[in-house]
Design a protein that fits this description.
By secondary structure, this protein is α+β, with helices and mostly antiparallel strands. It folds into 4 domains: 7-120, 2-Layer Sandwich (Methyltransferase, Cobalt-precorrin-4 Transmethylase, Domain 2); 126-192, no CATH class; 199-362, Heat Shock Protein 90 (2-Layer Sandwich); 369-436, Winged helix-like DNA-binding domain superfamily/Winged helix DNA-binding domain (Arc Repressor Mutant, subunit A). The chain is built from 14 helices and 18 strands. The chain has helices at residues 18-26, 48-63, 110-120, 140-150, 162-168, 180-186, 220-235, 257-270, 315-323, 333-343, 369-375, 379-390, 396-403, 407-419, and strands at 7-10, 30-34, 68-74, 77-84, 92-93, 96-101, 104-107, 199-204, 210-216, 238-243, 249-253, 278-282, 286-292, 350-353, 357-363, 394-395, 423-427, 432-436. Strand 6 (96-101) and strand 7 form a beta hairpin. It starts with 6 loop residues before the first strand and ends with a strand.
C-alpha cells in the first residue's frame, strides 16, 4: 500500500498534520492513517485511547470540520484512521489553504488561491464586477457587429440599445456594474484592465528560435477576427488542391480552416483570464495552441475525443458567443476539430494538459516535399514515402522489385527510414512489412 492523493501515512500524530486534513477537505477527501511509516509499513501506535477521545474536538475546533475517526488493526498492531470528506466551502489551517496534488500536500498562494476561493464560492472570475469600468468603455462598433450576428438567435436585438443588450446578456451585476466578461467581450481596450488578455502568435524554426511574431489585442470578438486574418495572410500557406470546371485553381489552407477557427474560439471561451496570455506556436510541421487553465471537473484529454459533457469556465462568454452564432452546440468543439482534420486527411490533433493549461497540437501531413528534402533522402526513399501515403504497407521484396535493386540496398534504405522515424517495421507472422509513422 502506498500514499496517494487520498491517502497519507504518519507514524505518530502531530497537530501540524492538520494541514493534510485541510488539503483532503479542499480536494477530494481522504484518509490519514496513523501508525504507518512513509513506506506503508505498519508500526502501530500506543496512545490509541487519547487520540480517539481528543482528535475529534481538536480537529473541529481548528478546522471547523467533523471527521470520522476509526480504530483498525493490522499485523496485530493498532492504527487510527482519520477519514475526511470533501467540503464545498474552503477549509483553512492557521489562515492558510492547502490542496492535494498526487501524494503531496501543497499550500495555495497568489493566483492559485484566488481561483480556488472563487471556485469554492461558486463564483467565476468573469462574473465579478469591474468597479473601475463604465458603459463608456464599451465599443459601440462591436455591439453593432454582435447585434447583426445575434439577430437570428435573439429576437428583436437589432432594436435594443447598448445598456439593454449588456443587461440581457447578464453582463452587469445587481447594482449595474459591468462584469469582467463584459469588458473582455465588448470593451474598446480590455488590456487596460486585464493586461494578459491578449493573443500571441509566433513562427518558430525550432523550440527556441522564433522568426516572427504578432500580438493580437482588443476585445474577444476583435481578437477572433484578427487572429484568423493574420493566420491566413502571414502564417498559413495555401496549397493548390485542384481546378474547377473553368480551370480556376482551388486553394486550401495547409490546415483545415474550420478546425483552426474552432480551436481559436474554444481557446477564447475556456481560457482562465486570471492567468497568462494565449500562445500559438507555428512550426514547420505542427501548430501548438495553448491557453491557461486546466480542464475542469472530471474531463480528461482522452474524453474530449468522444462525446462528453460541456463544462464551462466562462459561462457568460460562452453564452454570448453562442447567441452570436459563433458556436453551434455545447461540448462538440473538440469533436468538430477532429472531424475537420479527418476530412483533410490529417492526423488527429493531440489534446494535452500542460503547465497548468490546455493545449491543442495540430499535425500537418509531414511527408511533404519540404520535409523530405530536409531529411536528405535519396529518390527511391522519397518515392516510397509517397507510395506509403496512399498505400497501407510495403515489404522489402516489393521494394526491391519496384526499383530493381538488391535486397542489401533495399534493407539499407529501409533501415535509414526507420532510424529517421518515418516508417516502422511490423511482422504479420509470415513477412516483415513497413508502414508510415504519421506523427
Amino acid at each position: 500500500m502506498t500514499e496517494t492523493q487520498n491517502t497519507e501515512f504518519k507514524e505518530t500524530w502531530k497537530d501540524d498534520y492538520m494541514h493534510t486534513l485541510s488539503a483532503f477537505a479542499n480536494t477530494d477527501g481522504g484518509v490519514l492513517i496513523i501508525g504507518k511509516n512513509d513506506k506503508g509499513e505498519t508500526v502501530g501506535i500506543n496512545n490509541v485511547k487519547y487520540l480517539l477521545e481528543n482528535l475529534p474536538n481538536k480537529i473541529s475546533q481548528k478546522l471547523g470540520i467533523y471527521p470520522s475517526i476509526e480504530l483498525s488493526e493490522e499485523n496485530n498492531k493498532q492504527l487510527v484512521e482519520i477519514h475526511i470528506n470533501t467540503y464545498d466551502v474552503p477549509i483553512s489551517f492557521n489562515g492558510k489553504y492547502y490542496i492535494r496534488r498526487g501524494s503531496t500536500t501543497q499550500q495555495l498562494t497568489d493566483k492559485e488561491l484566488n481561483r480556488f476561493l472563487l471556485q469554492k464560492s461558486r463564483t467565476s472570475w468573469e462574473s465579478l464586477p469591474e468597479h473601475n469600468a463604465t458603459i463608456d468603455d464599451i465599443d459601440e462598433k462591436t455591439i453593432e457587429k454582435f447585434k447583426n450576428l445575434a439577430k437570428k438567435r435573439v429576437l428583436g436585438i437589432e432594436n435594443e440599445d447598448t445598456k439593454t443588450i449588456i443587461s440581457k446578456l447578464r453582463l452587469t451585476d445587481e447594482k449595474g456594474n459591468l462584469k469582467r466578461a463584459a469588458i473582455l467581450l465588448f470593451a474598446k481596450d480590455p488590456q487596460k484592465y486585464y493586461i494578459s488578455s491578449y493573443f500571441k502568435i509566433g513562427r518558430f524554426t525550432s523550440l527556441t528560435d522564433i522568426v516572427t511574431d504578432d500580438v493580437i489585442e482588443g476585445n474577444l470578438f476583435s481578437q477572433l477576427n484578427k487572429v484568423l486574418e493574420v493566420l491566413r495572410a502571414k502564417y498559413l500557406r495555401n496549397i493548390i488542391s485542384g481546378y474547377d470546371e473553368n480551370w480556376v485553381r482551388i486553394e486550401d489552407l495547409e490546415y483545415p480552416y474550420e478546425a483552426i477557427r474552432e480551436a481559436v474560439i474554444n481557446t477564447l471561451i475556456h481560457k482562465d483570464y486570471s492567468g497568462s496570455h494565449v500562445q500559438m506556436r507555428i512550426y514547420n510541421n505542427e501548430i501548438n495552441l495553448w491557453n491557461s487553465g486546466a480542464l475542469l471537473e472530471d474531463l480528461t484529454p482522452e474524453k474530449l475525443k468522444g462525446k462528453h459533457k460541456s463544462v464551462l469556465r466562462n459561462e457568460l462568454i460562452a453564452n454570448t458567443f453562442y447567441k452570436a452564432g459563433l458556436i453551434e452546440a455545447w461540448g462538440r468543439g473538440t469533436i468538430n476539430i477532429i472531424n475537420e482534420c479527418k476530412k483533410a486527411n490529417l492526423p488527429i490533433p493531440d489534446f494535452n494538459e500542460n503547465t497548468n493549461g490546455f493545449e491543442i497540437i495540430f499535425y500537418k501531413d509531414k511527408f511533404n516535399d519540404e520535409f523530405l528534402i530536409e531529411l536528405g533522402l535519396n529518390e527511391r526513399q522519397k518515392q516510397i514515402i509517397k507510395f506509403l501515403t496512399e498505400n497501407p504497407k510495403i515489404t522489402s521484396l516489393e521494394y526491391c522489385n519496384k526499383f530493381n535493386i538488391t535486397k542489401r540496398t533495399a534493407n539499407r534504405d529501409l533501415k535509414q527510414l526507420i532510424e529517421l522515424k518515418t516508417i516502422v517495421a511490423k511482422d504479420d507472422g509470415k513477412n516483415t512489412y513497413y508502414q508510415l509513422i504519421r506523427k
